[in-house]
Amino acid sequence: MALPPAIRLMAIGTMVVFFYLCVQILQAPSSLSAGGKDAVKFSDMPRDPNLDPTGEPPEPLHRVSGNNYAPDNANSNRINATILSLVRNEELEGILQSMRDLERTWNHKFNYPWTFFNDVPFTEEFKKATRAMTKAEVRYELIPKEHWQVPSWINRDLFRESADVLKEQDVQYAHMLSYHQMCRWNSGMFYKHPALKDMQYYWRVEPKVHFFCDVDYDVFRFMQDRNKTYGFTITLYDSPPSVTTLWPETLKFLAANAQYQHPNNAMKWLTDKERRPQHNIDANGYSTCHFWSNFEIADMNFWRSSAYEEYFEHLDRAGGFFYERWGDAPVHSIALGLFEDASKIHWFKDIGYQHIPFFNCPNSPKCRGCITGRPYDGDAKLLKEDCRPNWFKYVGMGPEWTTVDAHVDLILKTSYPRII
User: Fold this and answer.
1) Domain containing 64 — which CATH number?
2) Catalytic: 340?
């Protein structure tokens, strides 16, 4: 018996709706966690702008021409800058990997010096192997004891008790004293080393990192010519238990030093409470967003400024480098976000980079060895750690990429519909 036309149309419509819903369910990822205070949905995550074609920043850029960057050219176009690495002798293989990548993609053209720091003398094996990786000058520096040792005002018993508490909260390296010393040195000591007194810029490189993209311009001259203070590739959320009192101490400092806060600051990025509200609550008002400082290209004059020096001294006396696990990444990031013009902070979108498990992988023919636009490697839950959406929301990609990407406003509006 044939069905009436109206019934047939309803049946067809029902089937169409059913198949549409099935497709949507299959295409839409579920939430990153089953629920609870830190549940973040995939639908809240933006489309990575690295999926869009990436070129170089606009000209003028300084490039190799003849022997203008030759390693033995005393009048080269190099400026007062160095590649900088804090590394131990036993990390030799890891730093050789990093050197191999950066020399291949960039420094074999520009021959900027490498400066290695260690709290113990470097072995001859380390020196021989690293010198063989580059035509550039290589320097091996010992950290002064007064820069590395635990300050006299730190109570060792309290440090151990605090580490016990942090360990219960799954904070990594809580009991590793050398890790705390490293964070303090990277925060407020490295730029005071006599070997860097004539240096203005540095590119920080750690062992076991990868660089994926050929970079054909002098990044240090780019920083100087564009009046940039800091360059990053990755920005993430920190572990709130590791920085519980960092923001309250920062507010104490601001209350007494309001003159240091820049009018064009990134306060909203530092205090966002919409995307991961529990982080803001647990960190007492701090979003925990920070630049991942295992990659940073920066002007040391900022760290040498009165604002930063006084801020670091305040934090150092508060003891959080040892009683908590304040890292140089949140300390640098908060200082930059408060005391610097946000337009002087540059996202190096075009530099492909990996520090396990996170990536910056641009869509460029100059890049190979990484998956375009994939910001992590491993569990999909890592996607929620990406804090670039907040940086783009409150600060933007920067005028360089606005110039390169004529349709950047459209990209942002379609890629970040929930935060624009």
Assistant:
1) 3.90.550.10
2) no
